[in-house]
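Here is one chain, start to finish.
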Amino acid sequence: MSISYAIRFPVGTLLPNQTGNKSDDVKKIQHLLQSAQKLFSMAGANFSFYSRPILATGSINDDTRAAIRAYQKNVLRFPAPDGRVDPQGRTFFSLCEAARQFQTQVDAALAAHKVRQYSGKDATVAPASPTQASQETTSASQPATGAGINPITGTPGFNPHPAGKTGHLRESNNGRGEFKAPRMGGRPHRGLDIRGVLNQSPIYAHRDGKVVFHGAKGKGGNQITIDHGDVSTVYCHCSNTDFRKWVKSGQQVKQGQQIATIGDTGNAKHTPPHLHFGVFYKGRAIDPAQYLNGVAPAKCNSI
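Its structure:
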């Protein structure tokens, strides 16, 4: 399924005097909602944000509005879902990312089973060996099974590719962004650098928790630490422009709540804009990419 990630007008419940619900835009949103449903049902995620089928008719209806509200409530954790998708809004951005992640899962599954498709002919299937399947399927991220959300995309899971795109691994300019990547002096990188847009991309709370640190600290610049009970997460290089706007130390936060904006504080002024995302379990840094993709904290690579 090919999806054009652009709509011209709002879709769903419109504001007074607001123009929207054009057939082409509605159909795109319905396709995106379908992809999001399939993403959350894959790899044993055991999560459905909306239980009814979503039909891509191109006509706005109560089911489409209800599905949008359910996505906002159950995935994005909006306190007051409005049932509307704006062309430049968070709901649209998140749905697009969910659709991209779903397509990644499909591509990985096809590669693992060596599906060769010919136009106008049946597919020829040659199953891969266990070793091949393992190597190929692990190259794409799997949806998280309860480990919260990607703090930039607001959706489950993390895929490093395509590097340099918002929500994925940052480019390797002035150092690599992967966990354990070497740093000056031979020290390993204790987090994951997720690409964003400077002073624009929101940073979301990965899960419900309590803010236990909110301030400036060394190379991390403006940073926030959230205690989730089993693990704690750290968000570094937050923007100066609105750092004090969103949360404060001691505050309880909900999964998907905006806590900051991508910035370049600390040692991030000479790298592509990104969030340094750290996850700590029993005092040790663990691999955030593994954790975001559903690996239990005790089984993640650690430093």
